[in-house]
Specification:
Helices cover 67% and strands 0% of the residues. It is an all-alpha fold. The longest helix is centred in the first third of the chain and has 32 residues. It comes from Paenibacillus konkukensis.
């Protein structure tokens, strides 16, 4: 179908606006990457913009040999993978019955669930609850409290409600129980929305910070964002003891830039693999209320 002049203009404006919005997000990241590969003198003199100045990998050589940083990296990998898997399991198990018309009190249950989006638990009772459950200074305190996101559950529930009931009725006539219907019919048909929600959960767990501040005391259990905070605030914790001698090709500025990129890029690499599902899943999950 041939586009009208107005449609072409609208499309061109969209491309320009979205391109400009993308640049506002990409340029700071690219600049930080350039700083991490620049000399300390150029970084401190604010000479770096898009390309490195006096290229050097000294900051990265030092960062990649920091054992405490790698320990926090693997802690974050663990809570992101385990947390996402458990969150998806419990979110799907919650969304499925709430999408069924035979569940007579589904509207009342949904009302109570939606209330949690408006009124969050106060911080002190939240902390006391976690303490009484014995999860202080445990990685489970970073996973279990955020196991189900109401927003994500509503997206999956809405998608499930759009699946034809005839498929479920046919499966029941063939002797399938609810678990087989969920895992063999609903989930294979829901790949776009599942990929989208999985990405939401993974990003949330990767960026875990507030719960780590509240519940984790052992530095060996700090996730990556906590370690990044320590490096950004306490410069002496990231610099070598003899840095003042001036024999290194890096300083606090370039090391901080390298650490920020180290903590940011891994989760960004997940997006290209889920991109084809992302927009489709988000839209399909919002069609039917």
């Amino acid at each position: 179908m041939k586009q009208t002049w107005g449609e072409k203009t609208f499309g061109a404006i969209n491309v320009v606006l979205l391109g400009a919005a993308s640049l506002t997000m990409l340029i700071p990241l690219i600049q930080m990457l350039a700083v991490s590969f620049s000399s300390p003198y150029a970084a401190d003199a604010k000479q770096v913009f898009i390309l490195p100045v006096e290229f050097t990998t000294a900051a990265w050589d030092y960062i990649l040999h920091k054992q405490d940083l790698w320990r926090s990296f693997w802690v974050t990998i663990y809570i992101s993978v385990v947390g996402t898997l458990l969150s998806m399991l419990f979110t799907v198990m919650t969304a499925y019955p709430l999408a069924q018309q035979v569940f007579l009190i589904r509207k009342q249950v949904m009302l109570f669930i939606v209330i949690t989006m408006i009124f969050n638990a106060p911080m002190i009772p939240f902390f006391l609850t976690i303490r009484e459950l014995g999860m202080l200074n445990s990685l489970w305190s970073l996973i279990i409290p955020g196991l189900i996101s109401t927003f994500n559950m509503i997206i999956i529930r809405t998608f499930f409600m759009g699946i034809p009931q005839e498929l479920e009725e046919s499966a029941k006539m063939d002797g399938c129980n609810d678990f087989r219907i969920l895992f063999q019919i609903y989930l294979p048909l829901s790949k776009p929305v599942l990929a989208t929600v999985s990405l939401f959960y993974a990003v949330g767990y990767w960026n875990t910070f507030q719960r780590a501040v509240l519940f984790i005391r052992d530095a060996k259990l700090w996730p990556l964002q906590m370690k990044l905070r320590e490096y950004l605030i306490n410069t002496e914790d990231i610099l070598p003891i003899n840095q003042m001698v001036g024999t290194f090709d890096f300083n606090a500025t370039t090391l901080k830039a390298a650490t920020i990129i180290f903590a940011t890029v891994p989760i960004l690499l997940v997006y290209p693999y889920l991109q084809k599902y992302f927009v489709k899943g988000a839209l399909l999950g919002s069609v039917k209320g």
